[in-house]
Amino acid sequence: MTNKFETNLGQKRKAVIFARVSTARQEKEGLSLKEIQIPRAKEYAEKHGLEVNDKDIFSVSETGGQYKIRKKFTEMVNYVKKHDDITDIIAFRVDRITRNFQDAVVVDDLRSKYNKRIHFIDDNFVLDKDSKSNDILQWDMKVLIARQYLERVKEDGLNSKLSKLRKGELPWSAPFGYQHAKDANGRKTVAVIPDKAYIVREAFLRYSTGNYSYESLAAELDMEFGLHFGNAKDTMFRLLKNKFYIGIMVDNKTGDEYPHNYEHLVSMDLFNRVQDAIDGHCRNRRRYYGIESVYRAMIRCPICGCCITSDHKRKKQKNGNVHEYIYYHCTDAKHKHRDDGLKIGRIEEKKVNLFMEELLRMLKPPEERMAELRDLLSKAHAEKNLYFDEKRAEWMSEQKRLLNRQRKTYDLYMDGSITREDYNENMSRYREAVSDLEMKLKNINAHDQGYYITVSYLMNLFEHAADIFEVAKANEKRQILSLLLSDLEFDGETINFTLLEPFDKLFKRQKGSVWQGRQELNSHLRFWRPLY
Question: Which of 21, 181, 199, 399 could form a cystine bridge with 26, CB 3.0-4.6 A?
Answer without folding.
Answer: 21
